[in-house]
Design brief:
The protein has 17 helices and 9 strands. It is an alpha/beta fold. It starts with 5 loop residues before the first helix and ends with a strand. The structure holds S-adenosylmethionine (SAM).
Length: about 325
């Protein structure tokens, strides 16, 4: 593969937010929902979405330039990427694209310099009370965030179910499991198991709006509240939100209520610092600004789990953005 010219690399990355911002807004105004199977000019899509025809043509042309929508003879049509922006797509990523463009998200990234200087979360400075308090206090942002987590999970759940055998467990807890999308998928592969979804009260309220009869919904704070005993605890992209000190506190609280022999399964990236083009290495910056969190190498995971009273059994790479880390309670 030929290397990109150095000047082009700087130009492309310095300006990457141009197209990124177009994607957020096109997702937000619902262009993909307005476009059916037949190609349409931007003027028709603008009339349906309350946007300016000329500006919309240019914004959609920029996205087509990046492989999202196809432009031919002045009309836009769907392609596989643009179809992921439709709300009715079972694997929709519309909310993920919207979430990345929410005002609070831009406010936090504006303060990346604060994180760079202090090593601390920029969300604490830019968003009153930090990320999860913001999502609680702004229900529409919270709803979009929770849906975004479902959207980002489509690529994770398949590889995860293929890599781990859940059939031997009776009670599987998904801790910080969002609206229960992963837990429901796991229970489908483990007919003898029941599930416990442990989440913040506002997220449990959203999860319960489409209840699953095999899931017990428990509202609480994983730093201090009692987490129901389970024989397997799953946490997908939760610990990466937190600093080492906070992560150890969460895991110690979980361990305090866990029965002997319980297992812990973290669906998290295991980063390779020498990799080029690694999504988790970029995702690490989102963790830095939002919650003083981080993506971790295998040895960092091992050290963290040790300090929280767990022993890492194995770390498995998976296709997609996460790996799997299995741990047991240390003797
Ligand atoms: C990055 S999301 C991951 C959601 C889900 N596991 C997934 O991967 O799709 C982190 C989750 O942790 C939950 N969370 C944050 N702080 C929490 C707390 N103190 N107690 C319980 N859950 C919490 C959030 O509500 C959020 O759903």
């Amino acid at each position: 593969m030929s290397e990109e010219h150095p000047a082009q690399a700087i130009l492309s990355l310095s300006t990457a937010y141009w197209a990124s911002r177009c994607l957020h807004l096109v997702a937000d105004v619902g262009i993909a929902d307005a476009l059916g199977d037949d190609p349409l000019p931007a003027s028709a899509l603008a009339a349906k979405t309350g946007t300016n025809p000329d500006a919309l043509h240019r914004v959609l042309r920029a996205l087509a330039n990046h492989g999202i929508f196809t432009l031919k003879d002045g009309r836009f049509s769907h392609n596989p990427a643009s179809r992921l922006l439709r709300s009715d797509n079972p694997a929709s990523m519309r909310s993920l694209a919207r979430m990345m463009g929410l005002n609070f998200h831009w406010d936090v990234f504006r303060e990346l310099g604060h994180s760079l200087k202090s090593g601390m979360s920029a969300a604490d400075k830019a968003v009153s009370g930090g990320l999860f308090e913001h999502l609680r206090a702004h229900p529409e942002d919270g709803r979009i965030f929770n849906e975004a987590m479902v959207g980002k999970s489509f690529g994770q759940i398949g590889p995860l179910l293929g890599a781990y055998d859940f059939t031997g467990f009776k009670t599987i807890g998904d801790i910080g499991g969002g609206v229960g999308h992963l837990l429901a998928a796991i229970l489908n592969t483990a007919p003898a198991a029941n599930g416990v979804l442990f989440e913040l009260p506002n997220v449990i309220a959203q999860a319960k709006s489409t209840p699953n009869p095999r899931i017990t919904y428990v509202a609480g704070d994983f730093f201090k509240d009692s987490i129901p005993p389970c024989d397997l605890y799953v946490m997908m992209t939760v610990i990466h939100d937190w600093s080492d000190a906070d992560s150890i506190a969460i895991l110690k609280n979980l361990r305090a209520h866990a029965p002997a022999g319980a297992r812990l399964l973290l669906a998290e990236a295991v980063i390779d610092e020498s990799a080029r083009g690694s999504f988790p290495v970029d995702l690490d910056i989102e963790m830095l600004v939002f919650a003083s969190g981080r993506e971790r190498t295998e040895s960092q995971w091992r050290g963290l789990l040790d300090k929280a009273g767990f022993k890492l059994v194995r770390a498995m790479p998976l296709a997609g953005i996460t790996g799997l880390i299995e741990a047991v309670i240390a003797p």
